[in-house]
Amino acid sequence: MDSTADPKGKRPLYQEDGLAYARAAAAAASATAAAAPDEEEAKPKPKPSSSSEEAKPEPEAEDQAEMPPLVLVAEDGVEVSISRRAARMSHMLRLLMEDSCADGPIPAPNVHSDILDLVVQYCEKHGPYYDPEASERARNPFPPFPVELTPTVSSIKPVTYVDPDPHGLKDWDKDFISLDNSTLFEVILAANYLNIEDLLDLGTTTVADMMRGKKPEEIREIFEIENDYTPEQEAELRKENAWAFED
Amino acid sequence: MSADDAGNLFDGMTPGKKHESAPPARGADLISSLPDHLLHHVLSFLPAQAAVQTCLLARRWRHLWRYTTGLRITGLDGPVPAEEVRVFVDHLLILRERTDLDTVEIKLGSLSEEDQPYLKLWARFAVMCKVRVLTFHIYDPYLYLDEIPLVSRHLRTLDLQGLGLGEAFLDFASCPALEHLKMAVCDISVDMISSRTLKHLSITNCHADSGQQVHLSTPGLVSLKLDGSSGMTPTLENMASLETAFVYLGHRCEDNCLSYDSGVFCGTNNISCENCVPNGDGRTVLLGCISSAKHLELMSESGKFIFIRDLEYCPTFSKLKTLVLNEYWCEAPDMGPLACILKNSPVLEKLTLQLFSKGPNHMVEMKGIYSSVERLPETSEHLNIVEVKCDVVDGRILKVLKFLCAYNIRFSFE
Q1: CA B25 – CA B13 distance, rounded (Å)
Q2: C-alpha to C-alpha distance for B284 and B238, rounded to whole angstroms
Q3: pLDDT band at A129 (very low <50, low <70, confident <90, very high)
Q4: Which residue, of B69, B336, B364, B404, is most buried by count of CB atoms within 10 Å of its CB?
């Protein structure tokens, strides 16, 4: 893919393309751009806790907290700044910072500034506690069913010496992701472009939750999906996949 | 119209292929504006049957289910008997595209004899698809897996329930990426469970045959949970990277003090039954191997000899910061075991005593702090919080409080 493609052109969908494009654009822009306005205060460091399970900020991240925030440019030209600590949550931005290509404005084409604001909000909230390894480990790919059939396990519940959610992020996430459909999908696409895995998971599991337990007709209604099968095609498909439709 | 004409506008593409595009969003149909790979991801969260049923939504969706990166083999509303999904899964595994699978979850209720070979086959299929996270729960113990080792360069997390596991399976030498192992309600009557790479191990309510001594060879472990299994307590190896451990020796633990029933207490100084006598070879069963942890929860039912016997070796918990104990440690008349472990924890910051109350909620919670600057010489200088949690404040609790008062700790109610 041509890394200097017109920003208004095809939306880059893959990390490699987006990264190359962003690098080239950032390199070109930083040659001419004025210094980024320092809108954001440096985020206060999280309180040190006695529990060693909580992620300690890495030394490299601490340095970055002192450096000026990054500037993202939305498709409508509005600039949105994001602290370096929060920017770590985006794999793409992390690579840019490592390559020192992050000093000038970074284009985020096809992401409206309102959506970019939301995404930055998410990253600023989670940023101080972000530990890439722990996040990978803790990621539970499958949200539990509403009704779980578990046998009686009669053992003492461990005292929660390590609160799995000490900062109340789960509740915050729940509120954050209660968005109308159109915003939700825009956030997912933005998280995909910037490669923010945690936000992408949050968005996609929310969509899956909306689909769960619903018949196809109900799903179509929720997401306003137009059924472009003819009745004959649909009947044929039901026969072809009858093994999945037995009730 | 033939079935071909009913095909969708965009071929289901294999993941990772570039130039994958999304059709232009039609009006309000925004979910269709997501690129294929994101929809594959969304469908992976649904029970497999629901994922396949999305083929009906619109032409775009006709083949998406075939490329999901995860499979959830269970009923639409939760675990169901295996026979209800067998025909479906047979079709699914053949008709879907053979992609790599990131996560596979098999959660099924009851099993019959005829189901068993299929279930083993599905697990094998998952491994062949390079699965990284495999969850296999049978709520009708036990399904005995064949005596063959798992061979996978990709498997990272294994979550098992209701399975019978053999010696060959539990030797994870052929799973060099394995980091998490969780076993609940499994039959693990083997001599050894071994993995050099394992970081997190959890064994809950498992079963080992009477007299079977299981040895855990997991030198790289960071967290350990041994929770209420039946049989003898497993022996461990020294685990230098261990940070947290939860050990609960429950009623079905076989390591019983022989004098307990007759009311005689085999304390650290009063060895009177042969089970409570230390081995004499200098190796502790448990405490010594977990002594490098920073957080420990050590609970036992009365009459089990493990902790008390291990204390004879006085392992030093040189990094221990928080400690949670139950009433077992306070049963001796002189509270010797509690005093001993406090003495051997030089950097302890917080002690929690959970007395006669299983939690997680307790009727009474007391917090104690040092009432004077002076501390007893043999306790950690850093110890600044002592919590006592119980349901009823009776004579047994008062005895503990009196003991702690001798340490110059004063209590207040929350």
Answers
A1: 19
A2: 10
A3: confident
A4: B404
